[in-house]
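Subject: glycine dehydrogenase (aminomethyl-transferring) structure
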Amino acid sequence: MNTQGRKTTPDAETAAGTDVGTYTGNRGLVHEEPLIFELDNPGVTGVDLEAAPAVTSRLGGLKARAGIGLPGLSEPTVVRHYTRLSQKNFGIDSTMYPLGSCTMKHNPRLNEKLARLAGFSDIHPMQPQSTVQGALELIDQLAHWLKTLTGMPAVAMSPAAGAHGELCGLMAIRAALQARGETGRTRVLVPESAHGTNPATAAFCGFTVDAIPAEANGRVSVEAVKAKLGPDVACIMLTNPNTCGLFEPQVKEIADAVHAAGGYFYCDGANYNAIVGRVRPADLGVDAMHINLHKTFSTPHGGGGPGSGPVVLSDALAPYAPLPYVVHGADGLRLVEHAADAEGRPFGRMKAFHGQMGMFVRALAYILSHGADGLRQASSDAVLNANYVKARLQDVMSVPFDGYCMHEALFDDRFLKDTGVTTLDFAKAMIDEGFHPMTMYFPLVVHGAFLIEPTETEPKATLDQFIGAMRHLAGKAKAGDAAHFLAAPRYTPRRRLDETGAARKPVLRWTPPAA
């Protein structure tokens, strides 16, 4: 039982893992798959390797006390194991992935094909620059289009993700303030609805975070910002469209007020995918904004390494852009690697090399294949799909803010009052319906939040199926069938677990059972 008193093991009639009426424990094509270490067959291997040559140890007398513990497996066993694991994984190639504020976009296969071209996938960051002119040209082209789309004069390509981009932007702001001799500007204004990385980044850079409360309409007012301004304000970090899925209508007035007070405007560009091709951030007074390539330009999301978060910079911050960056020279393109060779005053370096080449290839392929009209349509379709979801669900679910949304539709948990069903319970029941749950409990300014983002590529038939499932579940909750939700998910390989306990006391090492 978990801390809420709910079962954490499968029921015989409803889940794999115990007696489900089959000898194997399998449910058709859903196999009950053990850990790879439990498949160990000592002495079995899929390849023949020559014995390692004798070498002189350079470990100061330290010796291995035992083998490294890798399991012995044949090639078919390995292939089947990982194939079965893949069948348990939910991905955008399976069906709709409605995470809000994350944008789980379809990754066009054309982009994947181009990223695998040998001239891009096989190069090495330590090659002489004369041998990677094509790669440098691609980076330069992508930078050009990011600047064109945003209206900004400069872009730092090296940041590895959105949060890394935030760090880049604030470090550029800090460098600009130091160059002005205004080291006393130590306060950063952050709306209460912001992504958690905003205050974390500000604190990491040594700033003090001052929260701006949200208005009743889910937006930030220029009056609230002006009330916080002072000679110690370094910048504001404002997400637009914001995390409630709403456009900030006073964004230009807010930027002007911050600038008049001597501060900078950092725009969290996590939701730029809702306005690309329609709004230029430069026209809103933005000084720095990161662009999540996975959200706006369809590069793969997650996986522990393929992130990319270029940061566009205004004229005021461009001189402080980090190293390295691409420039045109007499002998072609080259990377400026050292501050002594830079025209401005770069604050330093964000990472060892220039960026994530595979993501650059995919993003440029997406931009060039869509063109200006296609990018505008993509953002428009994302907004259309989100408003369709909101319009079809707002009579059975509760909406915290009236009016149209941008690329994501936000609901709260008032429609579940007195049902005994929570947002988490509702999300678990969605899994049984074949849908990955939406973002839960974020933004924090909305109680029990359901943040749903359908993206631009979902067809109406899929949206209708998703909407039908949500309406069905809302009806069951209101009809008093709390038991249905408390028992969910029923059809997964494992039932509901003690997620808090697993996070606080993870078991990170498999130990063979005692003989």
